[in-house]
Amino acid sequence: MISGSPGASAPAGEAIAASRAAASRDALLDVRGIGKTFQTGEGSTTAVEAMSFTVSEGEFVSIIGPSGCGKSTVFNIIGGLVADYRGEVRVSGEKVSGTHPAIGMVFQEESTFPWRNVADNVAFPLEISGMSKTARLERAAHFVEMVGLRGFERHYPSQLSGGMRQRVALARTLASSPRLLLMDEPFAALDEQTRLLLGDKVLQIQQTLRQTTLLITHNLTEAVQLSDRVLVMTYRPGRLKRVVDIDLPHPRDSEVVSSDAFGHYVAQIWQDLREEASRGIRDDESRVLQAGRR
Amino acid sequence: MTSWMRSRNTARAVGVLTLVVVLAGIEALIRLGVINRFIVPLPTQIIASLPRIVAEENVVQRFWQTTQEVMWASLVIALIGISLGALLYRVRILRMACESWVGALAAAPIVLAYPLFLVLFGRSVTTIVAIGVIAGLAPVILKTLEGLTATRHVLLDVGRSFRLNPSQQFLKVLLPSALPSIFVGLRLGLIFSMINIVGVEFLINFGGLGQLINELAERYDLPGTYGAICFVILTSITFFVIAEHLEKWLAPAT
Q1: Which residue of chain A comes nearest to B164, CA vs CA?
Q2: Are residues B36 and B55 in the same domain?
Q3: What pTM was computed for the model?
């Protein structure tokens, strides 16, 4: 922890114990000791180990870590896309196995259906739920407007920019009314300016809907700009290293990035992350060297 | 007029002009004696023969018979081909066992096996359609398999995240994603099928345009023979236009 930095910050052990005691009763998401080991041709790799945290109703939490720390594995475990993991995931106290209707996922990769126009993409979960065409298109129009794409309802994804397509994916997930919005680096492929502006849009939506959100990211600015809490992960195997409470005023927008407090948070998280990212780079280099020797 | 319409009209005009230039070139080569006119008739003679074969050779009915055969074969090809492609996608071991054989089927001269089909189904429309189906099946199976396999994993994950059951996952995600590839297979299947249907009509001298080509060739009516081939091309164009419209309707974004 940086001396004199704003907001509360604590090493993982203390923070988890404290937050678990306070938040376990009203936790929407309760992740308990999850871990995952993958078997590869070269042996086994533990991607995530003993990771525990909670997310309360209405909270915006980010998980940040260096490349290869198992962030996406955490995303897939919570989203129910990975089987055979250690530990457990609970939503409102109910143990989750497989995908859960309370969890809506936004993926890192471009995930809109190219054969559906914007309105039909957004209405997709409503169509699956059996809602009539008129009702679902009406409801979809509401979410299309919410993500700022009004007027583009009849456009196909191929006619939209990357940022617009990610907003379509976000609107589609929101249309399913998830209690927990789970996002895996949704703006990773976008330029910094678009990313900041889309961050504003996400904050606006989160504040309007009081949407509980868990964001997986490797972007420091994004994590601090959007979150109430940032969970910092170690390099492989991914563990929870530190929890940083972001005590920046609400409602927030991208202007917050120019404040001193914002800079302090970014510096504080980077200090933890730098060590882990360096480990990651050293690990990559040694793997390349070993592969070269073989 | 939009620029898109202008480009489309220009493309059509260039297409027609190219055809006219090619035909004029062939006409010139025949008249100059470079191409033997007893093997290839003059294009003007072919065009002049069209009203005659329509009036005298019952072309409309024959055209309709070949069209019906191709239509039935196409429907069966689509039904069986897409189903088998989906089956090979689902059952990995079956795919590993059969994919090469299906590829080999695409290259096989099925039409030469017509005596076998004659024994099975007799000298009938069923024989013609059956050969058309077998000939056109392989590309549809292979392209369906290719399209399903090429579906991006993230789209399947989206389906899973919305808790789609297996049939919803297939109908709402896999099939629409594979549709452009499936239509490529259907077009190829249509070509293979049609060549074989007309070929078998010719070989077994049974109905349709193939039989007409056979009869006119035996009479050494070369302009009429080539005129009948023009009607085969017309059948092909009809089915391609139908396939194109069907694809635009089912997959408007492609």
Answers
A1: A128
A2: no
A3: 0.83
